[in-house]
Structures are given as C-alpha cells and as structure tokens.
Amino acid sequence: MMKIAILSQDGSLYSTQRLKEAGEVRGHEMRVIDYLRCYMNIAAHKPTVIYQGKPLEDFDAIIPRIGASKTFYGTAVVRQFQLMGVFSANDSQAISRSRDKLRCLQILSREGIGLPVTGFAHSTQDIDGLIDIVGGAPLVIKLLEGTQGIGVVLAETHQAARSVIEAFRGLDANILVQEFIKEAEGMDIRCFIIGDKVVASMKRQGAPGEFRSNLHRGGTAEKIKLTPEERSTAVRAVKAMGLRVAGVDLLRSNHGPVVMEVNSSPGLEGIEKATGVDVAGKIIEFLEKNAGLGKIRDRIQY
Length: 302
Ligand code: ADP
Hints:
binds adenosine-5'-diphosphate; 16 strands; five-stranded antiparallel sheet; D-amino Acid Aminotransferase, Chain A, domain 1; four-stranded parallel sheet
C-alpha cells in the first residue's frame, strides 16, 4: 500500500477523479491536494510542504496535474516534494521544459525526431525571411502561450501571414511559424505514454472545414492503431523531454510522423472514452513499480 498525492486544482475533474478511484481500487491511500494552496518551508536540512496548516508527510509518490497557466508555482511545489525524496510521476524540471513549446521543439530536433518545419523570431524586421524558412504560405502561426487550439491560425497567403505575424508581434506575443501539414486533413493523433510504452492512442478529427482537431474546438475522437514508426516517434519524444507520463500529439505528414507537442498533464477523459483503456489504472501501476526505485537523475541538459 502506498500513500499517493494527486496535485490538482480541482478534485471534481474527470482525470483527478479517475486517478483517485484507480488508486483506491488498488488499495492505496489517495489524497487530492490543491497545489496552489500548498506553502513551503525552504530552510536548511528539512524541506517541507504545508497544506491546510499541516505538513504533508510520508507520501510515497505524487501525480502532478499542473494547469498550463500555473506552471511556475506548480513546478515549485513538485520540486519541493522531490527534494523531500518523494517520487513524482514527472520531474518538476521536465514539466517546465515541456511547457515551453519552443524549448520542446529545440530538444526534439536535437534528437532527430520528425517535426513540422518551424521558424521563430523576435523581431518583425525579417518577416519575409521567417515565412521563407517554412516554405511560404499556406502556413500555421501559433501563440507560444496558447492551449486548446486557441491562438493557432492558418494563414492561406503570404499577405495574410504577414498581417497576422505583425498583429501578434505588435501585442508583444511570442509566436512560432510552422509548415502547414495539409495532408493531415484536420486529423491528429494523441498517444498516451507511460514509461516507455504507448498505452493508448486516438485520432482526433476537426469539425468540417476546421484544420484544428482539438476536442475543445468541436473535434471528434476515435481509437486508432499506430504504425511502428509512430509508436517509436512518440516514445522517443517523451524520453527526449525527460518525462515519464505524457501525451504526444502527432500529425501524419508526407515525410512521416511529425510531433506537434508533448504534454506533461494529458487529460484522461478523451483518451479513456475513445479507447476503453484504463489509463488511470496504468499510471497507478507505473507508480507501484517505480516509486521505490529512488532518485532518477534528469540528464536532458536543456
Ligand atoms: P494547442 O496546443 O493549442 O492544441 P496545437 O499546436 O496542438 O495547439 O494545434 C492545434 C491543432 O491544430 C492541432 O491539433 C492540429 O490539428 C492543428 N495543427 C497544428 N499545427 C499544425 C500544422 N503545422 N499543420 C497542420 N495542422 C496543424
């Protein structure tokens, strides 16, 4: 029996509930902890996390479910638990790393993992150069801080691309510019990886006329069988980021699978419902096998 904390802002979320339930079914003591209400004692000798006036002690493992807008504080809480010797499903550092889309793509490119051709620039002096890097229009422009498909724009012409890039940069937003994978036809693949295995995968298809497949944008999801190349690409991407539990989003391009994103707190609802796989149970099993192994060093360097 283990004592496991789920770090989540909202105990009523599907993912949080499923993890709690899956742990309890296996006889573990499960606790949902709102990491934003944790406070920390950062002193010599004994790091502690305090919650509702009491130190959180004797946990064997934590499952971080850190919201995209709460990465800074959330990863500090995860780090504190790790300093206390508690096993985390994902390392604090790996979560921070994966939250930065540009950093993520840089690391994946170092590993030779298939990516859409992507350009990034700070200045708007060289917009034409940036557009050239990705092979011209049509192209995709993404806000670095966006999620759920918000801030992802398809520019059909060079002129449209220029205007959108200028507008975003005028607001001082960080953007990246990406080759448009037209042949994906509004479909992307979400792979759920635990350890070094893909445990479930689904395809998501955008609403008619929509190139974004996000379920939040009206897309639909269905189980899919991956090719061996897709499977190994997803596993390598997670490993490159130093994550252990993650979602990888792939597009099927003419030049093989390309990774769009690696997500350190992938949702369970879409994937469990589309595939029927008990993903929450598999995460708990992973903790059972790994929590006792002691510290695992992060060797990613970037
Ligand atoms: P978010 O993280 O906000 O979901 P994504 O980068 O995943 O943003 O993009 C949202 C959706 O837009 C993807 O799921 C995919 O369907 C589509 N998309 C994103 N980038 C490309 C691209 N380069 N080519 C074709 N479709 C893309």
